[in-house]
Every structure is written in structure tokens, then in C-alpha cells.
Amino acid sequence: MTVIRSLARPMLASSFIVAGADRLRKADETVAQLSPVLRRAADALPFPTNEKMLARVIGGTQIGAGALLSIGKFSRLSSCLLALTSALNTFVEYRSADITTKEGREHRRNQLLKNVALTGGVLLAAVDTAGRPGLAWRAEHLAADARRSSKKLTADARRSSKKNLKRADKAVRGAASSVTGA
User: What are the backbone dihedrals phi and psi of residue 45, each rounded to the nearest 5 degrees, phi first?
Assistant: First the structure.
């Protein structure tokens, strides 16, 4: 891992870890803030659950994924999870912000920009390969290598077949000439 990645990942993850800890510590406030979204999520799940448990799951996800991102383990998966929680947070904060005053509107805009920037940061981290090729690149190059190998094998088989056919033809002509000449 490069020095930049070693510094940037924990810096990016710190915001999510702190937000997740706050969500766990203040689960009731989180439920009140996320209530409309959590109610729909609870209804969509195939098993019975409550909103407070979902708020805690979101907080725990932010802490766990943030910690994994900060140490560089499963960074793509953890970045995707953080992008989802960030998008959820962006939606909820924007929707529930106080816009009755000029300061409230400015705060809402600033929070929106901060959340969009954080989402963009974790999306970049989600596609970062850390210098190692991703699965799509590997599959594409594996397929190209297989095509080249199959073309080479086919060409070798053709050459070998032509040589064998020429030898067989020569042997048959030689046998035929010895039979007709005898």
C-alpha cells in the first residue's frame, strides 16, 4: 500500500466511524431521524425487525466498514457499504433539515455538499485497485490470452496436419509406384 493510501483511507474512514459510533450511542435519536426510511426498510425485510435495531445495524456497519477501510482490508466491499450508508445519510439529512431560516438553508446545503463529497470519496475507494488489477481486467486479459493460445494451437495443428498429409501422400504414391512398377 502506498503512503497516500495509508494516510487517505483512515482519514476518509474516520468520519464514518465517528458517525457510526454516534448512531449506536444515540440510537433513539437515529430512529427519530431515519424513521421514514427505516420503517420502509423494516417492512421490506423478510423477517420481523424494529427500527431501533436497524439504526444500530447501520451504525455498526459504519463502524465496521470504516475500520476495514482504514486498515485496507476488504476496502472495496467496505467502501461500497459506506457509500450506501452515506447516500442514506445524505437523503435523510437533506429531507429533514430546517430550511425556515437563511442559516438553516446554508447548513442544509453545506451538509449536502459534505455528504456528496464523502460519498464520492468512498466510491473512488471502491474502485481503487491499489495497483493490483481488478477482476474485470483479469478476466479480459485471460480471455485475450486464451484467444491467442487457441489461435496458436490451431495454426500448429494445421501445420502438423499438412505435414502428416504430405508424408502420407508421399508414402501412398511411393507404394502405388512400387506396385505399378513391379
Answer: -75, 145
